[in-house]
Specification:
single chain, alpha+beta, Aminopeptidase, 7-stranded mixed β-sheet, two-stranded antiparallel sheet, 8 helices, about 25% strand, globular
Length: about 210
Amino acid sequence: MSLTPELLLHGYSIGVFPMAEHRDDPEVFWVDPKLRGVMPLQGFRISRTLARTMRRGGFDIRIDSDFIGVVRGCAARAETWISDEILSQYKQLHDMGHAHSLEIYHEGELSGGVYGVVLGAAFFGESMFSRRNDASKIALAYLVDHLTRTGFTLFDTQFITTHLASLGGIEISRAQYQRQLKTAIDLPAEFGACAIPTAQEVIQRNTQTSYRL
């Protein structure tokens, strides 16, 4: 069966996501982890060091300004599951309003970002990249804040890495994930519904719940 945007959305709606073996692989396979990585939207941890970096500034935050640039940035590594076919299909999802990116710019250059798929109030994070120190952490901080303010209830990270765990990411069972997914995709949320806040606003909102000293 050929991969299509509609098939992708159906896959996400039932809790699976596609990957390719490598960059040049024309085929994809579906993944349904026994343990699913999620980022609790009230559990993101801004460390003292990250807060200091964010306050220092020198970067611009944008949404959907260069979706393909973010996907390509995520794929620019020695080994990647982001094939040309996957890039093409996610570009179509972006054009349909079901895939979005958040970008970090430094001196006008794309320096980091994250992208993912949206269904209802669920955001399925696909990948992130960084060309400057802490750019991916800053992107995640702004993304979590943005998802919270625009009505999202589920931030799926697929797997948990040491990096994500240090920021508050956790693993839940497949059954727990399915329950959260079923609830989230039936709720309304609008990814582009509000303006980008200041770094201090993002820090303050996270400080109120889970700021780690």
